[in-house]
Design a protein that fits this description.
Strand order of the largest sheet: 1-3-2
Distance between the termini: 52 Å
Number of strands: 3
Strand content: under 5%
Shape: elongated
Number of domains: 3
CATH topology of the largest domain: Arc Repressor Mutant, subunit A
Order of helices and strands: HHHHEHHHEEHHHHHHHHHHH
CATH class of the largest domain: Mainly Alpha
Structural class: mainly alpha
Number of helices: 18
Helix content: 55-70%
CATH architecture of the largest domain: Orthogonal Bundle
Amino acid sequence: MAVNREYKPGQVSPALAEAALACPDALSGALTLPPMEQGAEEVLTAWLHAVYARLRFPSYEPWNTAICVLLQLGIASDAMTLAELSDFIRSYAAKISGKDSPGVKCLDCGQVHDLSVIGNFTAPRGHPERDTSPVGVLADFGAVAWADAGPHGLLWLTPLGRSLAISLFFNASPHPTDSVADVIEVIGPVPAPAQRIMMQYWLTGRSAPDAVRELLAYGETFMGFAEEGAARLLAAMVGPDGLDGWRDWAAKPGYGVYARQWMEAAEESLPDSVTEDQKQLDKLWLGIDEVNSLAERGPGQFLGWFKAVKDKGGDAGVNAILFAWRLTGHPAVDRFVSLLIKAGLASEGVGDHPALG
């Protein structure tokens, strides 16, 4: 981590420290904690660091199911049924994957009884199925407890689990003085619902419009990299209070397309300076985004499409498309040109002028 931050337990008490020393991992010898003689805070801080390491926080995986479990149980402030928890995780997974797999709902209770997303957390410790279960991972550290492992069984955070939730979602949140790069490094990898909570403390250091301005300015400098998408996603999480920031960016050409897109989705009027020509360029920009995704996923398909263009319209056809794309200012166009020249589908200078020659 670039951010040098100490992770502290949300609460410090002898009872919590005793609970940490009595958690399954500690009792089995898999986790070594300081003795109580060194103080409750030392015990809990060591326990907390061990949990963070096991959760791989911060992690650059698309999402971390164990953090989803911790978040949802923390929000619930009470026990949840395993079916309810599974439905939350399944819905979130469907949202980020774009694949809806709701499962079959029970005719009696209306819930989906497929608990596969939370795995077999009742398997013996050390069993692969328990080790890959988000609930099993938290249970090994004494952070969750349950009554009945069936769909209607209840699961809840223990006092240790609540201490972990406070530490993760508040104490480990970005500070108001942190840069956008630090914010993305700390909370970029965690699930979106957790990001919304964890960025709140950072937002206290600036107005909502300024937060949007800061995030979009950072995103513009990282076009083509994962950081750009992360910055734009966090800007969208600022909410409607950031409208003035979005409006400022909507008046800008190029990268301002995403602000104009946000404002239209929010049914807000665009600045008067946004012309019809700009709206046409915006359509081209967003189309280039899709082509860029294609070029990254399947370069062969990208080159095949341009080969078809060349077969039909010759070099002039390729030039016309690239020239129109260059008018948008989209940074991916230079990459397209390099790919086409390397594949022998275009020559140096293609797209620089309206016509070849």
